[in-house]
Amino acid sequence: MSHPDPYGSTEPRGWDRSAPALPWPETGLEPGPWRRPAPGPDAFPDAEAYAGPVTDAYPLDQRHHDAPWPPDGAPAAPPGRRDEPGDRGPAGDDRPDDDYPTAQIAPVRDEFTVRDDPAVRAEPAPEPPAGRRSKGRRRASADRPPTTAPPASRAGRNLPAAIGVGAALGAAIVVPLFFFLPAFLAVLAAAVAIGIWEMARAVRRSGAHPPLVPLVAGGVIMVGLAWFAGPDALCLGLLVTVLGTMIWRLGDGPGNYQRDLTAATLIAVYVPFLAGFAALLAAAPDDGHLRVLVTLVAVVLSDTGGYAAGVAFGKRPMAPKISPKKSWEGFAGSVAAAAAGSALLLWLLFDVAPWWGALFGMAMSCAAVLGDLAESMIKRDLGVKDMSNLLPGHGGLMDRLDSILFAVPTAYLLLAVFVPVVS
Predict the structure, then answer these.
(1) Proportion of the chain above pLDDT 90, given as a percent
(2) Which of 25, 272, 295, 415 has its CB surrounded by the most CB atoms within 10 Å?
């Protein structure tokens, strides 16, 4: 069954109808491998309509998009019918560009277009949106050279910052020690309070929550008792601090009570009790400031000698699972430097025989290294690198007091034998 013509013609469509003449006959074209030849008289009944020469409205030497549209003589679109987007041309379509969804899309430029078109290459690069710069490495220029991180030293610390901070801490201790001794007590109490805070903050990583208020208050009281009343009062202050911590912790309930109390007891013994021996050294009549001085000098010589020997000769690790950077060569340097310096200093200040001074220095070096290893073990168990970041190049204050805390009880006992206190 034939279908009616959609453009109004009622003639049936089929091979039995004659083909209408084209408005623009294609003439002047030779049949090629890609063009079907003109049908002969045997193919269609009205073969005479195709017998003439075939011409093309578009010459072969002209691209079809350069030809006018529609060609001359072509009928316009039927009334009521609008051209499709694919039928748009430079003429014959008066719709605005907004009617086409793809009219506002920027053309895609490949690498060949950018390379071959001077106008495209001359276009400025789009500016990034204002606001915070996205993460990544900034682009260096002549005005802004690339930033480079300062190389870390072999010891793993910022050496200039460490020397500057160490000198400032030494001045904060030595100046009041020689010019106004009660100010040294205030400095010692402040250091104890900061050390307790750092330790309580660090042990919270393990889940323990020791009460901070009774620990800080008890630590400051312990230092004062050692200063004014001696070693017996220091031990009494430790007992009072632990009992006060137990009572304070009861207010938070029984949950994890034993763990919190164990952490609080460790902090009370490790920081204020050991630091109280520095108050005992300074409270000695007539030469208390000298006792503190020889103790600090021995610890500084031990650290400096160990650092220098470890950097220069360190090969065999001393305790790789606790502190991988410590070596036996560094330990030997610590002992040698502390022994030599203490022998000279005790002979000059207290008229002690050099071999006794060397023994004092060796004991101080061993105590300082043990204190450093003890805190390294605590930090490794807690999973922290430094107790805090208060001191550039050093970490926290406890990272500097670790050697001194173990050294001051040793110095107090040895100096009580070598240099008896004159009451």
Answers:
(1) 40
(2) 272
pLDDT, tens only, 162-176 = 777 778 888 888 899
Give the closest residue to 153 by CA, choosing from 369, 374, 308.
Answer: 308
Alpha carbon 263 to chain centroid, angstroms:
30
pLDDT the model gives residue 142:
58
* 165 three-state secondary structure: helix
Query: Where does 283-396 have alpha helices with state H?
Result: 288-313, 328-350, 354-382
Position 86 confidence tier, pLDDT thresholds 50, 70, 90: very low
With H, G, I as helix, E, B as strand and everything else as coil, classify residue 218.
helix
Non-local (6+) Cβ contacts of 75 within 8 A are 23
DSSP letter at 180 equals -
**CA separation for the pair 107, 37 (Å, rounded):** 39
Token duo for residue 367: 């105590």
3-class SS of residue 423 = coil
**Residues 330-361 as b or e (16 or more Cβ within 10 Å = b):** bbbbbbbbbbbbbbebbbebbebeeebbbbbb
d(Cα 262, Cα 268) in Å, to the nearest integer? 10
Confirm if 185 and 227 have CB atoms less than 8 A apart.
yes
Distance (Å, whole) CA 175 – CA 186: 13
In the chain, DSSP finds a helix count (H) and a strand count (E) of 12, 2
C-alpha to C-alpha distance for 81 and 313, rounded to whole angstroms: 94
Q: What distance in Å separates the CA atoms of residue 49 and residue 52, rounded to the nearest whole number?
A: 7
Instruction: Say how far apart CA 275 and CA 295 lie, in whole Å.
Output: 13
* Amino acid at site 344: L
Instruction: Kindly report, residue by residue over 31-78, the tens digit of the pLDDT.
Output: 544 445 555 555 445 545 445 554 544 454 444 445 555 555 555 555
Record the pTM. 0.62
Tokens 């900034």 correspond to 138
The closest alpha carbon to 303, from 367, 230, 390, belongs to 367
Residue closest to 392 by CA, chosen among 165, 190, 153, 154:
165
pLDDT at position 387: 81
- The model's confidence at residue 158, banded by pLDDT at 50, 70 and 90, is low
Cβ(28)–Cβ(55) below 8 Å: yes
How many Cβ atoms sit within 10 Å of the Cβ of residue 284? 19
